[in-house]
Specification:
single chain; about 210 residues; disordered N terminus; Metallo-beta-lactamase, Chain A
Amino acid sequence: MSSLLHQLSSHLSISVNMSSEPVIHNIFEPVTCTWQYIVADPFTSEAVIIDSVLDFDPNKLTVSTSSADAVLALIAKNGYHIDKVLETHVHADHLTAAKYIQHKLVRMQGSKPDICIGQRVTLAQETFAKRYGVPKEEIDNAFDRLFDDTVVFKLGGLEVKVLHLPGHTHDHLGYQIGCRCPFPFSPSSPGNILTFLPSKHLLRRLPLQR
């Protein structure tokens, strides 16, 4: 009897440990050298997309959706249901495919995932709007949800913590999903070393599995 209980206990322990770890798909976009991510709960197939890319040809001044379509194909192949489309910050090196992906997912899964980013994006929006003459209504409708620094939400059975990690940009976020390192985090080329150091100290304090 004790042997059976020990086996059951071991099995339950393994299941709990497994459920705390997400499945991570890293998708590299070579033109802009951007990493895109699909992160999923392996037991519920609930997933998020992080930092999707809309392809842009600077010579022809045209956009295409090859990178985004590859992400959508991987989602369909694995049977994932996308709960949120996440952005870490405003990107200077590529266009986001969040709106395109959101539109396609409504047809694919019958529900509309929120497009989310950190609350400090408003400063970048105001700056770009003034410079490029972007109408206010376009700024107001760009994102469905703006995260503050204390947000925690569920991804299936996983816990996702939103972390403000300035340095790469002032508004940069990391998403700690399960026990994994917050990602994506861009410590290279920090805009201001004084803003980057607190992010480094925060990461060192986290109990992480790498």
